[in-house]
Each structure stands twice: as C-alpha cells, then as structure tokens.
Write a structure and sequence with these properties.
The chain contains 19 helices and 40 strands. It is α+β, with helices and mostly antiparallel strands. The strands form twelve sheets. Strands 3-2-1-4-11-12 form a six-stranded mixed beta sheet. Strand 13 and strand 14 form a beta hairpin. Helix 4 crosses helix 5 and helix 11 crosses helix 12. The longest helix is centred in the first third of the chain and has 31 residues.
Length: about 700
C-alpha cells in the first residue's frame, strides 16, 4: 500500500491553534489537532505551531519528511493593528519644489487612529535630493534617534521612476533598520494611498520579521524540509520570504483561509460562504470559481491591499436570544462566552430540571433583555445553537450537535413565555438571528450579480449549523454545511494555492506592457515554489483607471484527486440540465476535454433572437463556469491563433463605449484559461498566444466566447 505525502495546514487563532493533515493526492482529511495559542511563550506563536505540528504527526503516524506542503495562517498582523502594538515608522519624503510640498503633507499619516486615543507612531524627515547620500544618512539617523524602528522611502511618481526611492533605501541602510520603498509595496498611482499602504506595512514589519524567523527556525529544528508558506488575505499563500517583505498581506487573512477551504474542498463555483463562530459570521463570495477581493479598508482608510471582500455580522452559534413584550426582539451581539455561561443545549435534562426563564445584562452597559435559564444545574444561555438543535437543523456528527431532547427542554421555557410551542419558538429565534445574515447575503448576491440558479450557500466554522441550514430555507437557495466545517480554515490553509497579484497603472497599455505584467505575476509564483506547468494567470485591464492586473496561482506540486470520486457522463448531464433549467434531452454536449465537458441549450426569446446558455462541468460534476449566451468552438493549438483571430473579429462589439472584444475562456488540458478581463482585441489575442506557447501542436483547444453588449 502506497502512503501518500501530506499537506499540513495550521491556523493560528486568538485562542486556539488548529492543525490538519490532508492527503496530498486524494485531499482526504487524515487528522486534526487543537492546542492553545502560545501568545505568552518566549517563542510566541511559533511554539504553538511546532507543538500542533508535533501532535499532528504523532496522531497520523507520519514523519517530518512526509510533509509535501506546510502553511500557516495567523491573525498576528491583524491583532497588532487592532491592539495598536506596532513599531514607530520613520518616513523619508523625497522631493524639491512642488514635489516637496506633496511629500511633506504625508507627515500627517501620524494622525491615523490605531485604537481610541492612540495614533500610528510616525516620525518624518525630508530630503530634497535622493542622490545626496550624506543628507539621506543624516535623515535616517535623525529618525532613528526619534525612535523609528523601520524606515519607508516615498516620492511622487515613483511607480514610473523608482530610482529616487531606491537611492534613499541604499543610502539609509547605514542606520541599521529594516527598510522599504513605497513602490515596492504597491505600484499603483496615488501618492498618499500608496504611502499609507507602505507605512502600515512597515508598522508591523519588525514584529512579523521576528515571528517569521522564530517559526522558520522552529520548523527547521523539527526536521521539516518543505518550504513554509503563509496565508494571504486574498485566499492564496505566499513564501515566508515574501511575507518578510510584505507582512501586510497577512492582515485579514483569517476569513480568507475558510473561503480557500470551501473553494478547494467543496469546489464551489458560484455561491456565498458563511463562516460561523461563536459570536459572528463572516460572509464572502465565490463567483465563477474565484474568491471576490477588493482594496481593503485599514485604520478607517482605503488601502491598496487586495483582500477578501468579507462582511461580518454579529450573529454566531453562541449568540444569545433577547426578549421583550412577549416576543423575540433580537439575537446577539452578546454571546454565551462573553456572558460566561454554558449553552443550555449542552447541559443534561437533570441540569435543566425546574428551569425558569429570566433576563440578564451580559455586560454592565447592556440592556437587561438577554434570556437565560436558571435551573437545577445552574444558569444557562439560550443560543442560536440551542434553537438549531431543537429545530432539528444540526446534522448527526456535526460539531454543534446536541441531544435534541435536551435542546427542546432548553427552548421550552422560552416557548411558554412566547405562548407558542417549542418548534415555533426555535423557528422564531432562528428567523430573527438569520435575518441579519440574510440581509448581507442578499446584498452580496446583488453586488456580485451571482446566478441564483446555481448559487449555493456553504456553511463553515463550528457554528455553521446554527445559521446556514435555516438561512438556506428562508432564502430559497440551496445550502449545505462543509465537510469538517469546524476545521475548514486549516483545511483551507493546507489546500491553498500559491498566489500573487501584480497591479500596474499603465495609461494606454498595449500588448507588450500587458504581457510584461502577466509574465511578472507568473514568475513571482514560480519563484515562491509553484510548479511552472500548473500556473494559471488571469489578466484584467481596466480602461477607466488604466490599471493592468494579473493574478497568478499555482500549486507547489501537481495534485491529482482519487479517480474514484469522479462522476459519469449521465450525472454531469443531469447537473448541467438542472442548472440550465431544462430537460436533459434538450441539452447538447458542445465540446469535451479530458477534464471538462461543455453543455449548451437554446432559449428562444423572440422569432429572431435566440440565446445559447452554456455550462462547463468538470470531472467531479461541479459547474466551473456558466455563461448566459456563448459561442463554443473546438480547434487545436497549431490552428488556434488563426481560428481565435477570426472568432474575435466576428464577435467584437463596436459602439459609443468603444471596442469591446468578447469575454474569452480557453479550455486547455485540465485548465480553464480566463481571458475575460481584457476588452481590446489585440492584447486579448496576444494573451491567448501566450497561453498556447508551451502546448503541443495537436492538443485540442476549446474556445468559449461570450459577446459583450
């Protein structure tokens, strides 16, 4: 019997550090452990990471050399900003004349609020000539004397002319402090936003450098020779060296780990992921097989940090019910653990004997309307989890499962106070609690224009069963709880792909500039350990902002799932037909590759207008792409450039908004190359050629073209 190597994911939370081992070939969960997060140990969180890894290897019977991939996610950077535990930044502004006025204003970044009453510690110095090494050294020494622990150089237009910032960084090294240039953190226009992003990055740099060194040395001592990766806030992972350069990318990475788990394990193509803990639910979107990201708001200001678009609602599995006037008036934001109370549904029937309903203030300033039970076994909180168990919403074996009879006994006093039966009381509690979540879910579905025919709600986290099943019924959407939902975050860390996003402001970008940004993103993930033949790059060109964006993803080794899980053609056809809302007899196979089948049908709108909706289904029976109206053509690599040029000419739109090439996806081998982010036919065809370059001449290519109106 062959023992596959393992992928290890470690999620460092505020209270616990969770670790999982996943079979690198079948992606099966092999083991999981939980240890207290070691904030106060002399080695910091590194101690907990190594302890969790050691226990995990012992539980699974594996050795350090069996680890093919090791990654961890951490809330340390986020916590540092929330708690105001940051380094003093020395900002060196560069410029003479009008440029000097622009950079001197950046000293006001020291007014950024970290916590109430505490501002970002920042000292400012100015140099007129970046090539005056003596002046730069004096400025750096002055900042060091003022307490700076890290230095940042910034200059107007450094995105196009980085030489000034580079010269300052080189000359300032004599101060012996960590250094960074603003253009190295982000290459987008906007001096103030670019500098603000670089300054916040620098503020957490010394602390994160120390942690990275400790974790790295600890893992090496443990005998692990696979490179250590770190979770990013956009759902991918990066090398430890990249984290040392841009630690800001780990801010807000906590929710990203769960989404990565849902995307890779649950294989969501279109839907909403809800990660529910004890106090809150993080809500995020997967659209067309990709996580939704945006420029994050940090310290109350927009940054150039690309992070998961996650929206948090203060309702979780431990959220307490509030009552008044004979009805349920609210759920949360206080949870049972804030009140210091156990969940009533996890008591025993004897504990709940003679239970009476009363209300309390969990915190001194709270209203006295939070319902609790005073019973023979003490005081207990009535929570969303109690209601979900009483309503039969929590499946057998779920992390939040309790004895349903106990849950019903817990809800009974509430039901009596409301004048209804137990089932109705539980439903009302869940209605009120999930209403807050539903409002956000509805907004995100609308914001991202999700296809409600194929969208699915997927719940993760220990409290998933308290929210997702009831919400799915209330919203009319399909819903399910992720497998191993209580450890979906470390699973996401273990399965995440190496990711890099390169953004450039390039006015009037042509083929050469766009291909250069693409190549830079591809080279970056390969340098971090991604297998070159598995890298995928998605390019988007925004003509309104002149932004060229390339997102590259790749695995550190090629992963092949167990073929036993693959679906047959009949099952894939039924899946496509259900999504297309038609009878399977009306669905046609338009094209096939080894990994995907393209299905289509016709929808007649008028006598002259007919739509051709398309669904692309992978070998696991998951819809990877759905297009409302598309043209599908099959060719081979040798003929593809000429065939694509003809297809693009025939499907390009012309109008007042300018030229709009079709949204093109190419099915190549096991991949779907998404070129839909490019509107100009020239660069689009150049990108298509770059996707075909490394392929054999006879390899089939399926082109899916969506005409833009």
């Amino acid at each position: 019997m062959t023992t596959h190597r393992i992928r290890v994911g470690i999620d460092v939370g505020g209270t616990f550090t969770d670790a999982v081992a996943v079979d690198a070939t079948t992606l099966e969960l092999l083991g999981q452990v939980k240890v207290p997060t070691s904030h106060h140990h002399e080695d910091g969180v590194a101690h907990g990471i190594v302890e969790a890894l050691s226990r995990l290897l012992a539980e699974t019977g594996r050795a350090p050399e069996d680890i093919a991939f090791l990654a961890h996610g951490t809330t340390q950077a986020t916590n540092a900003l929330l708690e105001g535990d940051v380094a003093t930044v020395g900002l060196i502004g560069i410029g003479a004349g009008p440029a000097a006025a622009l950079t001197r204003r950046l000293a006001a970044l020291g007014k950024l609020q970290l916590t109430p009453g505490k501002s970002l510690p920042l000292a400012y110095a100015h140099v007129s000539d970046p090539d005056d090494a003596a002046a730069v050294r004096r400025a750096a020494d002055t900042l060091a004397q003022e307490g700076a622990q890290v230095l940042v150089a910034t200059e107007p237009f450094s995105v196009d002319r980085p030489e000034g910032e580079q010269a300052v960084v080189a000359a300032a090294r004599s101060a012996g402090l960590p250094l960074t240039a603003a253009h190295e953190i982000t290459s987008l226009y906007g001096l103030r936003k670019r500098t603000r992003t670089a300054v916040v990055n620098a503020a957490i740099l010394p602390r994160m450098l120390a942690t990275a060194d400790l974790v790295d040395s600890s893992i090496t001592k443990a005998g692990v020779d696979s490179p250590l990766m770190v979770m990013r806030c956009d759902g991918g992972v990066m090398s430890l060296d990249e984290m040392r350069r841009r630690p800001l990318l780990t801010v807000l990475s906590g929710p990203a780990a769960g989404v990565a788990g849902a995307l890779m394990q649950e294989r969501i193509s279109e839907g909403v992921f809800l990660e529910t803990g004890g106090t809150s639910t993080d809500i995020s979107v997967v659209r067309r097989g990709k996580v939704a990201v945006q420029h994050a708001t940090i310290l109350g200001k927009k940054s150039y940090l690309n992070a998961l678009d996650v929206r948090t609602v203060g309702v979780g599995g431990g959220s307490m019910v509030r009552i008044g006037g004979g009805k349920v008036t609210g759920v949360g934001p206080r949870s049972a653990h804030i009140a210091g109370l156990p969940y009533a549904c996890f008591a025993t029937l004897e504990d709940l004997r003679d239970a009476t309903l009363t209300t309390i203030r969990p915190m001194a300033d709270d209203p006295q309307d939070y319902a609790v039970l005073d019973a023979a076994g003490g005081r207990f909180a009535l929570t969303m989890t109690c209601a979900a168990n009483a309503a039969g919403r929590v499946p057998e074996g779920d992390f939040a499962r309790s004895d349903q009879a106990v849950a019903e006994a817990a809800i009974a006093p509430l039901a009596e106070a409301l004048g209804v039966d137990t089932a109705t009381a539980a439903a009302r509690l869940l209605d009120v609690g999930t209403a807050h979540v539903k409002k956000v879910v509805d907004t995100m579905i609308r914001d991202y224009r999700l296809d409600e025919d194929t969208a699915v709600l997927v719940g993760g986290g220990g409290g998933a069963a308290s929210v997702t099943p009831h919400l799915a019924e209330a919203s009319g959407l399909r819903g399910r709880i992720a497998r191993h939902s209580e450890v979906i975050s470390p699973i996401g860390v273990a399965l995440a792909l190496v990711r890099e996003q390169i953004e450039r402001t390039v006015p009037g970008a042509g083929q050469e500039q766009i291909l250069a940004v693409r190549a830079e993103a591809e080279a970056a993930v390969i340098a971090q350990g991604a297998a070159a033949d598995g890298v995928e790059v998605e390019v988007t060109v925004d003509p309104q902002t002149s932004t060229v964006r390339a997102v590259a993803t790749g695995a550190t080794e090629l992963r092949t799932q167990d073929r036993a899980h693959r679906t047959d053609g009949a099952e894939r056809l039924r899946t496509a037909a259900a999504s297309l809302k038609t009878d399977p007899a009306q669905v046609t196979v338009l094209a096939t590759t080894a990994s995907h089948t393209v299905y289509g049908t016709e929808v007649r709108r008028t006598l002259r207008a007919t739509r051709h909706p398309v669904r692309i289904v992978d070998a696991d029976g998951v819809i990877r792409l759905h297009v409302p109206d598309a043209r599908v053509e099959t060719t081979r690599v040798a003929d593809a450039p000429e065939a694509l040029a003809k297809l693009v000419r025939e499907t390009t739109s012309y109008g007042d908004g300018g030229v709009r090439a079709p949204a093109v996806r190419l099915l190549l081998g096991s991949r779907i190359a998404d070129l839909s982010g490019v509107l100009d036919p020239g660069p689009l065809l150049a990108l298509a050629r770059s996707e075909l370059d490394s392929r054999s001449a006879d390899e089939p290519v399926v082109a899916v073209l969506e005409v833009r109106t």
